[in-house]
Design goal:
mainly alpha, 76% helix, DUF3263, DUF3263 domain-containing protein
């Protein structure tokens, strides 16, 4: 069961998916005393709970896809920086 605070955070996030200056102001306006970093850490932890996934499945799926895309991009950059990465691997990653 989600608390009122958790529900407010998830409803706010569902209404403001993209990270913008307007969203930054909204995070402060929630009145929870969260900085942006604290908000996103709390959101990530919250979206990992079964209750949040059950009540906000589309939001949880959207955040999972976004996190997977970021992780994939980080991995591609890591491989590209490796001195032992062959040109073939670099070319495959570039396409």
């Amino acid at each position: 069961m989600l608390t009122d605070t958790e529900r407010r955070v998830l409803e706010f996030e569902a209404a403001h998916l993209r990270h913008t200056a307007r969203k930054q102001a909204g995070i402060r306006a929630l009145g929870l005393g969260f900085t942006s970093a604290t908000y996103y850490r709390a959101l990530t932890a919250l979206l990992a709970t079964p209750d949040a996934v059950e009540e906000f499945p589309q939001l949880a799926a959207w955040h999972k896809r976004a996190a997977d895309a970021r992780a994939g991009a980080r991995e591609r950059r890591r491989i590209e920086r490796m001195p032992s990465a062959s040109d073939r691997v670099r070319n495959e990653l570039a396409s």
